[in-house]
Automatic annotation (TrEMBL):
Reaction catalysis annotation: ATP + protein L-histidine = ADP + protein N-phospho-L-histidine
Single Gene Ontology MF annotation: ATP binding
InterPro entries, per database record: HATPase_C_sf, HATPase_dom, His_kinase_dom, Sig_transdc_His_kin_sub2_dim/P
Keyword Ion transport attributed: no
A Pfam family: HisKA_2
Start and end residues of each Histidine kinase domain: 154-347
Listed EC numbers: 2.7.13.3
Record-annotated membrane-spanning stretches: 15-34, 41-59, 71-89
Database matches in PROSITE patterns: HIS_KIN
Protein keywords: ATP-binding, Kinase, Membrane, Nucleotide-binding, Phosphoprotein, Transferase, Transmembrane, Transmembrane helix
Name used for this protein in its record: histidine kinase
Organism: Methanoregula boonei (strain DSM 21154 / JCM 14090 / 6A8)
SUPFAM superfamilies documented for this protein: ATPase domain of HSP90 chaperone/DNA topoisomerase II/histidine kinase (SSF55874)
Amino acid sequence: MVYDMILISDPDIPVAVNLLMCIGIVIVSVWGYLRIKRFTPLYFGCAYTLFAVSHVLLLAESGQVPGLEFFILRTAGYAFVVFGLFAILTDIIHRTKTEEELARLTAQLEDRVLERTAELARSNDALISEVCQRTIAEERLKLILHEKDVLIKEIHHRVKNNLQVIVSLLYLQAKATGDPTCAAALLDSQTRIKSMALIHENLYQSGDFSSVDLDRYLRNLAGNLMVAYGTDPGGIRVITEAEDVRVTVTTAIPLGLIANELIANALKYAFAGRDCGEITLTAKKERAQITLAITDNGRGIPPNLDWEHTPSLGFNLVRMLVRQLKGAITLDRTQGTAFVITVPCEG
């Protein structure tokens, strides 16, 4: 700026050159203002313009003592220079304060980052500890569940063995007695107890302690009854149709006793005097109920027999167990004998 002032004060510089330089300075000042949105370039542009105008006045007076206008213009120019310098100083101070504030905020941000990092590290450590504790708890729970399964399996095995002991005692008692009626009653008791033992045996072998596969159970039950009553498997055929039907233990035991009584009756009475026959065991699970049908193509129950009021222990037991299951039972005598038992599902 001082260098520019010296050039402007030089009387050898033509007026046209001064005007061109002044116009250029004004353009640069306006451009600088538009770029930085501050008045500093305009201050120096105004100062340069005033110096240029005062120089023109000085040249016009041809070496005479400068007039009042010259000093006013020069003073105003210096004033704009002071404003410009003050603006520059203000910008420097403001920028310094901004940089200091930015440094302070940066330091605060770094402190917060460090604090948050420490918190995350603590949270991560706590999470890892919780995961470890949960893993240990899950392992303990798995061990407890395994021990529970082993215990339940052992209980079913022991119950089955104890029932088998009772069956064996009844068998020995039947062999020792000389009364055929008493021996037949003991045999019926054996089959009933064996039907309950068979459920515990199926539970022990399957590993699923919550439900019983009805198809497998009925096949085993029918096979045991045929052996118990000495039925020729080549003559009397048992067909089981109960795939994908599972029942709970509380339903399986009374339902098994019902099936035991009806199958035993069919084996003892339905095919008397005949060498062949067929017993069909059908079970279906529909919506909220289970339907079990036990049919045979034997000679059928006599029409004059009121099976619902007969004093027979077997039929009384069947009716009592159906009521216990809150179910219903019907008899169809059109073709042989067909008992249809309907009971509600549990769960």
